[in-house]
Each structure stands twice: as structure tokens, then as C-alpha cells.
Design a protein that fits this description.
alpha+beta; 11-stranded mixed beta sheet; 9 helices; 29% helix; globular
């Protein structure tokens, strides 16, 4: 082929390629209106906050007695246009509300109902990169107990932190495309699988192993003697109620520091307030127990290490059933039943055979053991009398 004919062929092929390439371009880039990377102004941030509030209010309302049939459309259905749920997130929320309806039914079978709920969401921070916005929010929820047994606590509540992802479409409209719990995700209106704590210390043949507790209701009688030990169990409960959301500055705050969070550190503080004495020594020795602002033993802050210390020191005895727990006792959970415990809670009240626990990560007060079990029915439970 001559140089001239080769050049004509190349130009012809190039033209054909250009035409084909145009045909393969997305329609919106061939003429539909496209905006620059959208800006998030104060009005848009306020709408982000309102949509987040609607999401978590819908979840709370799904647990309230009588609301399943009467609540009508979810609040999130009222958002469209500039800011709304993506179709995928909308399906996720539908599934979440259905799961919470089932949880409400399980709670009712255990004699627990909520007469009303209240949720408020505050926007903590917003970061925008291109067409994605990350929005950090704090959810504060209160659920009022319906007087089924007659002497329930007035209410239970929690503070939870979430990160919401918003993605802008080609018109600059924002859609909520994801929700991530940024603390341990142990709130009563959450359905995501909780994080599990990593094993820190080495398990050996001599490491104390606590027996699992039954979750059958009601539990057999096993009344607690509140005077035999010399401990102040009321002081333990008072401490936990005081610092469930406002952390004591005399200790470090481990919330957000990986799986496990601040739960055991918080329970140890409450036990100390009620009379548990330090056993000083090597930080990594589970037979020692101590904690202050500067240094803490693994047994003071670690879920499994606390269990080993508690049993080895004879400061606790194991209970056969979780419904035997009383004020100042401790409940632990192994969510995935792998033998490594993941979460620690302290009992702060009891109502006609049902204990109520308070804990950190997610910061929660007066949540019933029945609610914990209804939320995580397949977990393994460990009950300790202090």
C-alpha cells in the first residue's frame, strides 16, 4: 500500500472510531445538563440533619407499642428532590423497620413494651470531597417504658454516633447512600451486627473459664445478699447512672478505640466506686486489677481479662441464668460465640425478675436484659454476681 493510500485509510478509520466512540458515550455527557461539583451550604447541611433525624426517628417509632399499624408512611418518605434516600438505602431502611417490628414482638412476649419514643439528631461535622459528603451525627434517643410489670424504670435511652454518606447525582441532588455506626452499635433501635473485641491476652489451660448463663425467662430464684460482701452496690449503680454519657475525666475514654470500646473500663470504674480495691502489679497480669488516669491493667479495661481476674480473685461467682442478675452484678456477651467475650455491662436496677443494665459504647442507661436478648438471641451470655 502506498504512503498516500495508507494515510487516507488511517484517517478514515480514525473518523469511524470517533463516530463509534460518540455513540458509546453516556447520554448525560452528550447534552444533558451537568453541574460542577455541588457545594454544601448551610441549607443543605440542615436538610442532611433533618433526613438523619427522620431515619432514626422511624427506627425508634418501630419499637413503640401501637405504632406498627398507626404510624403511616415513614418520615423518610417525605424527602425528595435535593436531598433524599437512594433507592438502595430506602430498601435497607424498609428491612430495618421490619426487623425492629419483629424485635418489638419478641419484647412483648417477654413482658416489655414502650409507650412512646423520642429521637433527636445533631449534626457534628460535614466533609465534602467531589460528589460525596460524609456527615457525622449524634443520635439521642429515649424510650419510655409502658408499665407492664408495674415497677419498670421510667425510661431507657442512649447516645449513638453515626457517619452518613451522601452522593450527588449529575444534577447536583444529594442521595443518602450509606449509614455506618461509629461506636459499638449496641443501641436498641439498631440492627447491624456488633463489632467483636480482639483477644488481647493469651488463653492457657489455667485461664479461668466462666460458664455460660441461660437466657430462659423467668430465671430460678437466687436472691442477692446485699450486706455480706461489704460492698456498696447502690454506689455502683449511682456511678454508672451519673457517667453513662458524660465520661469521668479521672479516667481515659476508650470509646472509638477499636472493638470493645470503653465498656469494661466503665464497669471497672463503677465497681471501684462501690468498693473494689486495686490489686497493683504488672499491667498484663490478669491476676492484677487497677486503673486511674495514668495507667490501667488489662483486667481493668479488657473484656476477657476482666472475666479472668473476677473469677481468679473470687470477687465474683457465676450465675446460672441472666435473669438472676441484680444491682451491681455484671453481664458479658460473646456475640459470635467464638469463646472470646465482646461486651461488658453493669446492672443498675431490677424490676420483678428483670435486670436493667447501663453501659458504654454505645452509651446506654437502664436497658433491660430482655431487650439485649431480644436484639441478640443467638449470642452467648455470662452472668457474674459481685
Amino acid at each position: 500500500m502506498s504512503r498516500t493510500r495508507r494515510r487516507a485509510a488511517i484517517l478514515g478509520a480514525a473518523a469511524t472510531s470517533v463516530v463509534a466512540g460518540v455513540a458509546l458515550l453516556p447520554n448525560w455527557s452528550a447534552g444533558a445538563a451537568v453541574v460542577d461539583d455541588p457545594k454544601v451550604d448551610a441549607r443543605t447541611k440542615a436538610t442532611f440533619q433533618r433526613l438523619a433525624d427522620a431515619v432514626f426517628t422511624d427506627r425508634t417509632e418501630a419499637l413503640v407499642d401501637g405504632k406498627q399499624d398507626n404510624r403511616g408512611k415513614p418520615l423518610t418518605d417525605g424527602f425528595s428532590g435535593d436531598v433524599k434516600l437512594s433507592s438502595k438505602q430506602n430498601r435497607t431502611e424498609d428491612a430495618t423497620l421490619s426487623s425492629l417490628d419483629q424485635r418489638k414482638e419478641r419484647l412483648a412476649q417477654l413482658g416489655e413494651k414502650y409507650s412512646k419514643g423520642s429521637t433527636a439528631v445533631t449534626l457534628d461535622a460535614t466533609s465534602v470531597k467531589g460528589r460525596k459528603a460524609k456527615v457525622a451525627v449524634t443520635e439521642t434517643t429515649t424510650l419510655t417504658y409502658e408499665k407492664v410489670r408495674g415497677d419498670e424504670p421510667k425510661a431507657t435511652g442512649f447516645q449513638a454516633h453515626h457517619e452518613l454518606t451522601f452522593t450527588a447525582d449529575r444534577h447536583g441532588n444529594w442521595q443518602l447512600t450509606g449509614i455506618r455506626d461509629t461506636d459499638e452499635g449496641l443501641a436498641v433501635n439498631q440492627t447491624a451486627k456488633p463489632s467483636v473485641a480482639p483477644m488481647v491476652a493469651t488463653v492457657t489451660s489455667t485461664t479461668p473459664s466462666a460458664p455460660k448463663a441461660s437466657t430462659s425467662y423467668p430465671g430460678p430464684a437466687n436472691a442477692k445478699n446485699f450486706t455480706a460482701s461489704g460492698l456498696d452496690y447502690k454506689a455502683m449503680a449511682t456511678y454508672a447512672k451519673q457517667y453513662w454519657s458524660s465520661y469521668n475525666p479521672a479516667y481515659p475514654n476508650f470509646n472509638g478505640h477499636g472493638a470493645g470500646g470503653d465498656c469494661t473500663n466503665f464497669v471497672s470504674q463503677a465497681l471501684k466506686a462501690g468498693g473494689w480495691k486495686h490489686v497493683p502489679g504488672y499491667v498484663y497480669d490478669y491476676t492484677k486489677w487497677f486503673g486511674n488516669a495514668d495507667i490501667q491493667s488489662d483486667s481493668f479495661v479488657g473484656v476477657n481479662e476482666w472475666s479472668w481476674f473476677a473469677q481468679n480473685s473470687k470477687r465474683t461467682t457465676s450465675l446460672a441464668n441472666v435473669y438472676q442478675l441484680d444491682v451491681g452484678d455484671v453481664l458479658q456477651v460473646d456475640f459470635d460465640k467464638d469463646g472470646s467475650k465482646d461486651h461488658t455491662m453493669i446492672v443498675t436496677s431490677r424490676s420483678r425478675g428483670v435486670p436493667y443494665v447501663t453501659y458504654h459504647s454505645t452509651n446506654t442507661y437502664s436497658r433491660s436484659v430482655a431487650s439485649i436478648i431480644a436484639s441478640y438471641p443467638t449470642a452467648a451470655y455470662y452472668a457474674y454476681r459481685t
